[in-house]
Amino acid sequence: MLDTPRFTEITPTADIRAARHGSRAKCLQRLIRMELPVPQTVALPFTTVREIAEGQMPDLGTLVSLFDMEPLLLSVRSSSEATDWGGPGAVLNIGMNDEAHAWLSNTLGHAIADKLYLRFIRSFAIEVMRLDEAPFNEAEDPVAARDTYEEEMDAPFPQDIADQLDAVLRSMARAWEGTSARLLRQAQGAPADAGLGLVVQRMALGMGPGQSGSGVVQFVNPATGEPQVTGRYMGQALGRDALKNRDKALYLTSDPRGPSLQDLLPDVYQELIQVGGQCRDRLREEMQVEFTIAQGRLAVLDAVRCPREARASVAIAAALARDGIIPRSEALLRIAPATIGRLLHRQIDATADRTVLARGVAASPGAASGKIVFDSATAQACLSRNEPCILVRRETSPEDVRGMHAADAVLTERGGSTSHAAVIARGLGLPCVTGATGLTVSHRRKSVRLPDGRRLSEGDTMTIDGSSGEVLEGAVPTQEPMLDGAFADVMSWSDDLRDIGVRANADTVADATLARTFGVDGIGLCRTEHMFFDPARLTVMREMIFAEDASARQAALDRLLPMQRDDFTELFQLMSGLPVTIRLLDPPLHEFLPSGPEGLGALAAALDRPLSEVKSRVAALQEYNPMLGMRGVRLGIAMPEIYEMQARAIFEAAVAASGLGADVKIEIMIPLVTARREVELVKRRIEAVASGVQAETGKDLDFRLGVMVETPRAALRAGEISETAAFLSFGTNDLTQMTYGLSRDDAGRFMSAYVNEGVYPEDPFQTLDVDGVGELLLLGSARGRQTRPDVTLALCGEHGGSPESIRFCRLAGFDYVSCSPFRVPVAKLAAAQSTI
Ligand code: PEP
Ligand code: MG
């Protein structure tokens, strides 16, 4: 293979590659091929920049001689392989010296020459030679600045362009190798050996007589992705000046708020619009274009993928596909599955009561309630317990990103709309309020003082409204988001492509309604215990638990029956035509009992029993290891009447819902199975209940009975278990817990240490452990299919919504995954992507 030249002029035919010269160099070549007015540019590949960092400079005399301009002024910009890997900032006006100053004074005027020279000396001193900023900011003319430089450096200000370029290239090459730059790009997914390219470009001066200036334009709204010309232009300015001085800059399109480029230079404006259209068609992307106008003539300096928020990225990809610029499959691939999840921002219910605790900057939209936490480890612990939390920090730094991933919202005492917290939260689609006035966060005391003097501590609940910038007391009800056309398109294109089902884990009518809105293929897991948390039902449930004998227990169950029947009737109606998988009661009974003295007292009163009796009954129900104790099917075997009641409620509900016109598809699922006999026993009883209801109602009842595979033994014995099960649904939450022997409720405490030390690559409760748990999935599914080739295979743990697990399940031939309703769109998109 031929060595890459040490630098290459970018021409339409030059060998420029993103993997060697960086994406900026490649993009500039595309703009040149489109015959856009791009100033002459030379690209330095990664290899050259690496050599520069090691002290080997290419022949800069030859490089400079490629440019044909008098006087020669150059800019240098970084060009990393992926734009979001960053890189050192641009250096402009290289070549300014006494001679260029004199020349420019004669041609463009003294003021412009002074401005350019002063600006260059400042940036050379501060950004390249790393001198203190203050004395250079005080220097008001180039002579003073040059004197300051010479005093600080004890050397003359370099007059030769090659010497200046030498220093600039060296400083940029070294900056890329610095530790903080390395950490930042690695956080964006850059490999350890990611290279930096540089582009050296002839300056197109946005200063001079006539209409001269510079600006930045994009053709879509960065928040919504809707077509809209946005950006700024500033006369007698360079680089991104117009964006840095927005109040002094002009609007681009005619605007009642002030003068615009369109009014000032309608022809150039039209030309820019054309550039945008050309970029969209040819680069197949919405671009942000940096431009200069030199005496009325447009120059295109650079174009980058337009920065965009979650909603915009979906809208842009969908619009490009609708316009036939990219295929639909590519549009789907361009949307990170997590992004689609972020579109689903909840908003505060406008009718809800709200007490404002503090106000700050509305830094990232959406609303969320949760427990206050003050550090990443606690946020991650909350996530592993599925407890929503709000990360509260004085301000955030890269160390907090893990915690932000785990949190439901972020609140900071300091910062504004572009602070670290705001930017990261918008990227993650998390509601965020920054710069909350009057808050004082104490990380040490794990508390936050409110403007009114009150203190909130870790574990207290608050609500963040990132759309209004308000911090609200307690958990304020929220409303579902509005989903627009692009979202619907992406969902329907995903449905066309995917070949694995996506169901929802839904326990309530609200969950099921949301799931239906997202077009699920059914309910894959209805956790019936969640139907007993309503206070009225809880009392009856407690009576059932406290029953002294079978007849007392039956009396309580008879009261629970109609409640369950009503729930199921509603679910069946709502999900008409689609399967509804109802899981029989799973958790240990003591979970339904209160623990503190107050709760025990109230329970004794409600049950009209002596407190001592209630206490001793509660104590008797306590287990040393409840997650491995009397729960799941063990409950069904030891107290069969509970499952019988649930089965009756299901069948009676099916009859009622069918009578109301619903097409009911019943699936009943048994949790925590370890042996075939458990399934046989429960199955026999359920069939007896079905026959009973059939006889009583005269209606035929059809149902499928399945098993949750969530113990390693169930996976190992899936062959014999599937003889009695129509479907096997892998509950990867418990299966992960039991495969690792790692409590799902406690792992958060040390998971960060485990992941940081590289013991586990990821938290296995969030990212399916394909090596270990995955092997049990493969083994269980193969054994199940061997005995019963038509057995339905599914995954219904939290992993069901994660793109990696979906890919895994699809390859393993699973029929569907089931996840929480809000993850359904993510799962559908990931399922479609896994087929492309
Ligand atoms: C599981 O264990 O994966 C599961 C889906 O059940 P639960 O989370 O209710 O234990
Ligand atoms: Mg489970």
From TrEMBL:
Keyword Transmembrane: no
InterPro entries documented for this protein: ATP_grasp_subdomain_1, PEP-util_enz_mobile_dom, PEP_util_AS, PEP_util_C, Phosphohistidine_dom_sf, Pyruvate_phosphate_dikinase, Pyrv/PenolPyrv_kinase-like_dom, Pyrv_kinase-like_dom_sf
UniProt cross-references to PROSITE patterns, sorted A to Z: PEP_ENZYMES_PHOS_SITE
Swiss-Prot/TrEMBL keywords: Kinase, Magnesium, Metal-binding, Pyruvate, Transferase
Enzyme class of the recorded protein, top EC level: transferase
PEP-utilising enzyme mobile domain mapped to chain residues: 387-469
Family: Belongs to the PEP-utilizing enzyme family.
Protein name per UniProt: Pyruvate, phosphate dikinase
Gene source species: Jannaschia pagri
Taxon lineage: Bacteria, Pseudomonadati, Pseudomonadota, Alphaproteobacteria, Rhodobacterales
